[in-house]
Write a structure and sequence with these properties.
With 162 residues, the chain is of the alpha/beta class. Helix content is 33%, strand content 21%. The chain has a 4-stranded parallel beta sheet. It has a 3-stranded antiparallel beta sheet with strand order 1-4-5, with helices on one face. A hairpin with an 8-residue loop joins strand 4 and strand 5. Helix 2 crosses helix 6. The longest helix is centred in the last third of the chain and has 15 residues. The protein starts with a strand and ends with a helix.
Length: 162
């Protein structure tokens, strides 16, 4: 299966003073770390889902993705600041240290938090909720590993962020 590797969150949160919604993943996948931006795996459906929810064209470049998020008052980050993980397997995460989500919320107008997948939800509830008092809405993962949901089902589930 591979060996554990310590990963430290390589990306800063994407937000500005107008952000009202925060979407939290668990930790960038190996592919995302390679591409240098959130949800960089070509089979991850995150950008397709958000484009459909926001009724926009699917962004291609990092700048287009960042612009779409901020135009729609949406921030993106991850629950994990650092952890040990084998490859990109969420099920292998151990010794997770939470990101300072509460600190981010204090600098913004964010009042709604959504988590992308089970692990992000579990870690948010365990580490972050007690510091923010804001319950996170769990959304089905956009990861290619989540074959249980079709793209259309994901879009329908994610419409709640509007």
């Amino acid at each position: 299966m591979g060996e554990y590797e310590r990963i430290v969150q390589p990306f800063a949160p994407i937000y500005d003073e107008h952000s009202e919604i925060l979407i939290l993943g668990s930790l960038p996948s190996g592919k995302s770390r390679e591409t240098g931006f959130y949800y960089g795996h070509p089979q991850n459906r995150f950008w397709k889902v958000l484009a459909a929810v926001f009724e926009e064209k699917i962004p291609q470049s990092t700048e287009e993705k960042r612009t779409m998020l901020l135009r729609n008052r949406t921030a993106v980050w991850d629950v994990i600041e650092s952890c040990y993980i084998i490859g990109s397997s969420d099920s292998s995460v151990k010794n997770a240290v939470a990101a300072d989500v509460a600190g981010l919320l204090k600098k913004t107008s964010i009042r709604r938090v959504y988590v992308n997948g089970t692990l992000a939800g579990r870690l948010y509830d365990r580490f972050v909720f007690k510091l923010t008092g804001i319950e996170a809405v769990r959304l089905p993962s956009t990861s290619p590993a989540n074959a249980r949901y079709s793209l259309e089902e994901l879009i329908e589930s994610w419409r709640v962020i509007r």
